[in-house]
Amino acid sequence: xxxxxxxxxxxxxxxxxxxxxxxxxxxxxxxxxxxxxxxxxxxxxxxxxxxxxxxxxxxxxxxxxxxxxxxxxxxxxxxxxxxxxxxxxxxxxxxxxxxxxxxxxxxxxxxxxxxxxxxxxxxxxxxxxxxxxxxxxxxxxxxxxxxxxxxxxxxxxxxxxxxxxxxxxxxxxxxxxxxxxxxxxxxxxxxxxxxxxxxxxxxxxxxxxxxxxxxxxxxxxxxxxxxxxxxxxxxxxxxxxxxxxxxxxxxxxxxxxxxxxxxxxxxxxxxxxxxxxxxxxxxxxxxxxxxxxxxxxxxxxxxxxxxxxxxxxxxxxxxxxxxxxxxxxxxxxxxxxxxxxxxxxxxxxxxxxxxxxxxxxxxxxxxxxxxxxxxxxxxxxxxxxxxxxxxxxxxxxxxxxxxxxxxxxxxxx
Amino acid sequence: xxxxxxxxxxxxxxxxxxxxxxxxxxxxxxxxxxxxxxxxxxxxxxxxxxxxxxxxxxxxxxxxxxxxxxxxxxxxxxxxxxxxxxxxxxxxxxxxxxxxxxxxxxxxxxxxxxxxxxxxxxxxxxxxxxxxxxxxxxxxxxxxxxxxxxxxxxxxxxxxxxxxxxxxxxxxxxxxxxxxxxxxxxxxxxxxxxxxxxxxxxxxxxxxxxxxxxxxxxxxxxxxxxxxxxxxxxxxxxxxxxxxxxxxxxxxxx
Lengths: 413, 254
What we know:
The structure holds 2 protein chains of 2 kinds. Chain A is mainly beta.
C-alpha cells in the first residue's frame, strides 16, 4: 500500500508538471502470439501470452543539456486473451534531481549493475518477472538512489524499503524439483519479508573507468537484501544462486516460500583489447543469515563466477560465457558449470538474426533462435523459438516439454 | 573579337590554370594534402541535429539525432562525440559516446535504454566496423578518421581535385580508401572505400560555411549492395562553452 501511494505520488507529480516543464510522451503497443509445444508433439500448443500497451511520460527541468531534474513514468496495460483479464501496472516512475555531481532519485526504478550480459551475479537489486524464465524482465522496484559522479568513477547507493519477489512462472517450469502426487497441483503460501526497518535492503557500487589498454571498467558491489526467488528448481544451471527451499505444510502440494536474507559482495569488470576482443567478468559471493531456524538453507553460502569474451567475426557478433556456480552444502558442496553462446548479426538495415545457446556440462542445453524485422520506423516484428535439449533429469532437459515459440509485433512511438 | 580568338583566350586561361594547378599538385605530396585537410579549422565545440535516412529498394527508415562534439586530433586533442537518438520510438533514448585518441585508438560506449547499462565496445575492427544503428555508416565512420590512421599517396589531380589513396596503418574492414580533396579549400568531398579490390561503398560530403568554419551539411553513403544512407546536419551551434560533463556516461543516460 505504501509503495502504491509513493509511486502514485511520483506519477502525479510527473503528470501535473507538463505546464511547467518540457515534456515528451512516448509509448509502445505490443501484440504477441506465443505457445508452448513439446518435443514429441509440436502441435500441442498451449498458453497464449498477453497483449501489452505501454505509455511513457518523461521530461526535464531546466537546461536540456544539463537539467536540474528529470522524471519518467510508464504505465503498462496488459490484456490476457485467454482469460480476458486486464492488468494495469505502474512500471518505472521516478523523479531524479541533479545536485552538482550527485544524482538523487526516488520512485520505481530499475538498476543494472555488473559487466556481463546473461548471467549477472551482482545485478541483484530488482526482482524479475520469470513468466518466461528464458526471457526474464526486471520488475521496477521502489527505492531511493544516490549516485556520485566524478571524473572517471561513480558511487551508486540504493536504499530499498520494501521487498519485491520474482513473478513465478507456471507450474510447468518447476521441473522435477518438486515431487507431487498425481492430480495434485503446486500451491505456494508466500511468506515475504515484512516491511520493517530491519528488513530494509540497501547496497552500493563503486565503478571506475580507466584509460588502460583500449579502456577498462571495474566495479565493486555490496548489497544486503533478501532472495527474490522462492525455489531453485527452475534456476537454470544456478543462474541465480538461491538457497531457499520450499517448506511443505502438510497439505499435499502446498509449500511455504521463505526468503533468506543475504549479504552479497561482488567484483566485475571489462577490458577492451586492441585486437577487437572484449573481455568481461563478474563474481558474486553470497552469505545467508536467515533467522528462521526452520529453514534448512540457513547459514549456507553460494558464489557465481562468470567469464565472458566478445568478438565479431565475419560480421557475426559472438559472446561466449562460462559460468561456474558453487553452493556450500551438507555434506558436499555443489558445483554447476554452464556455457552460453550468443551469436547475432544484422542481415541488413531492417533484419537481424540472433541465436542464443546454453549448455550445461550435465549434457543438457537450450537453443533460442530469434529473427527480427523492422517493417517501418518504430514498427518491428520478431520471431523467437526456444528449444530444450537433454534427458528428463538434466538441468535443461527437464523442460523439454516447454519448448516455446512466439511471434510479436511492436510499435514504438 | 573573333570566335577563334575567344577560344584561344579561353584555352590559354585553361592552360594557365591547369599549369598552375598541376604545379600545385606536383608541389604537394599525398601526406601534405591530407595534412592540410586534417588541419582545416574546426570549432572547439559543436552541437547539431542530424536527420538520417536509410534507403534500400525504394523503402526508407529514418533516425533523428542530436550530436555534440569537441576536440581536434590535429591539435593533439582527443576528439569526443556524443550522439543521442530522438526518433523513431524503437531506438529513442539510445546513445553513442566515442573518444578518438591521438594514437588512433577509439573508445566507444553504447547506451541502450532497454538494457539499462552502458556497454563498452571494443576498439578493434570487430566492433568499430559494425553498422551504426542499421545504417551504411560504421561506428568507425561516425567516430571519424584521424591523420595517423593511414599512409597517403597522391594519385592524381584534375578539375582542382586531388585524388589521394589512403592505406590503413592498422586493421580495419577496408584495405584502401580513396579521398577526393578540393584543392581550393582542402576539404574532402568524396571517399571511396575498397574491400577485396572492389568498391564497397562511397561517401560524398557537402559543406556549409559558418563562423569561419566549413561544416558538413550533407553526408551521403552509398553501398555497392544497393543501400544508401543520407545524413543531413542542421541547427549547428558552434563554439559554445559546455563542460566535459557532456561526454560522460552520466549524460549519455540522461
